[in-house]
Amino acid sequence: xxxxxxxxxxxxxxxxxxxxxxxxxxxxxxxxxxxxxxxxxxxxxxxxxxxxxxxxxxxxxxxxxxxxxxxxxxxxxxxxxxxxxxxxxxxxxxxxxxxxxxxxxxxxxxxxxxxxxxxxxxxxxxxxxxxxxxxxxxxxxxxxxxxxxxxxxxxxxxxxxxxxxxxxxxxxxxxxxxxxxxxxxxxxxxxxxxxxxxxxxxxxxxxxxxxxxxxxxxxxxxxxxxxxxxxxxxxxxxxxxxxxxxxxxxxxxxxxxxxxxxxxxxxxxxxxxxxxxxxxxxxxxxxxxxxxxxxxxxxxxxxxxxxxxxxxxxxxxxxxxxxxxxxxxxxxxxxxxxxxxxxxxxxxxxxxxxxxxxxxxxxxxxxxxxxxxxxxxxxxxxxxxxxxxxxxxxxxxxxxxxxxxxxxxxx
Length: 411
Fold this sequence. Notes:
Blueprint: E1 3-13, H1 18-21, H2 23-37, E2 41-50, E3 56-65, E4 68-75, E5 80-88, H3 95-109, E6 111-121, E7 127-132, E8 138-150, E9 155-161, E10 165-170, E11 173-177, H4 181-193, E12 201-206, H5 211-216, E13 224-228, H6 232-241, H7 243-246, E14 255-258, H8 262-268, E15 273-279, H9 298-306, E16 308-319, H10 325-336, E17 341-349, E18 354-362, H11 372-381, H12 392-398, H13 403-406
Parallel strand pairs: 12-13, 12-15, 13-14, 15-16
Antiparallel strand pairs: 1-5, 1-6, 2-3, 3-4, 4-5, 7-8, 8-9, 9-10, 10-11, 16-18, 17-18
């Protein structure tokens, strides 16, 4: 009886009125979406309701599945619909098929506001999330107490784990965790921030969990951070669910938040920064979406260059040089078209299941030229203590790539 139960309450729907009123049209759409998911229909019933004057008043419909059911109820007078999908996962994991049905139905009704819920049935203690590295390789981790939310842009989920504490994933891809976030955030921030003699102004594009802002605020010279996160829901939920990661940074008076597309923001602003951190989701998520894709082009990198101060630096993550070699190489190539100095480095991020690539790009500041003693002195002068990954002796070592990764650097 193990299974996944999904519900969605959709409001202010802008989809076709026929889906709300015509039982046959609704039946055809729900049937087509369910068949496309690969689940097995074994029965159906769609019943139209009528008002006292005989006019149509909504439809209730159900598909019986070999795997369980899909149910829909429409309220045309409220432009609302409720969706209910349950699948059994006893012999096969049908979770992705169930989520696809809900996603496609939501797209068909086009709501302006959605409330989504997930309930694991028959396995109250735990289930597993799978993290894909390629189409053929990944890993899974045991999760419990799953909470799922749908923003207008993406699906955001939180769960408890034994190895990582609370984790957040977006559109099926792991983003951050309480226990290992330092591996990613410390190395995204400090190699560049400590290569700068006194960074004052920083821009974070993405980074709605607040982890990058929290690391930046450890540098006493920082007097302003602009956090440009496209999805306000990520910030709102991170405030509530990830305090161990942002540690109040999202509400620090030095942090100003703007919710817009990063490329549009860079093109329109006249401000300049000492540091620009591209703390983005992967350019291609497991479900094929790509919110971050507009921030991975030579034009965008050139626009960032124009917004940096003379000693300023841009930092970006590149994916895994082993599992994503083409992404690693092509991103470096695009950076080289926009910056005179491009220095890739790698760190191991347990939540991502791989050695992960990052890069610092600038007009003339070379992080590889900063000595061990200079980094140690700056850490001491800035009173930065308690780091769990990065330290002075590690700085130069980060940029010593294994030969297979070195071979990916464009000539």
